[in-house]
User: Fold this.
Amino acid sequence: MIIAKKEGKLVVKNKISTIKFIGEVVKINDYKLPGPGEFEVGGVLAYGLSEGGYVLKDDEFGFGYLDGINKVLDEKRLEDLPDVEILFVNFSDDKKMSVTEKNIKIFDPRILVAFGDGGKTVANIAMLGRCETIVGVLKLKKSDLPLEGQKIYFIK
Assistant:
């Protein structure tokens, strides 16, 4: 998986698809996911959550995306979805930080990829603890997942 931030959006490439996270919008190979529901596009299973956000699964990773969620997710509704090993979170909106932190704990990803624009973004991410800042491209493979704990990356 190759992850980069380009023109304010996060772009994730796997072996056969390109996924773009643009605000609350998610596109897989230029197909805009319509919201809640289950979809398969370009070899990626996508589950739109009714509260907002997505859980996605490709042939290598289970991953999630949070942006614009105003309430804490229902853990029971997530039980039937793929495990989220990598969670992408937009930290631009500091008004939703307490909800965001709770949702991160619910997913409990092995890798958290934080990104965002705006003056509060760096301060919001700093609240999570120690993270590694990435300028440019982050490449992840299955062996990069920590066996214990959580790795946090901030994509600038």
Observations:
- The longest helix spans residues 97-107.
- The helical segments are 75-78, 97-107, 121-126.
- The chain has a mean pLDDT of 89.
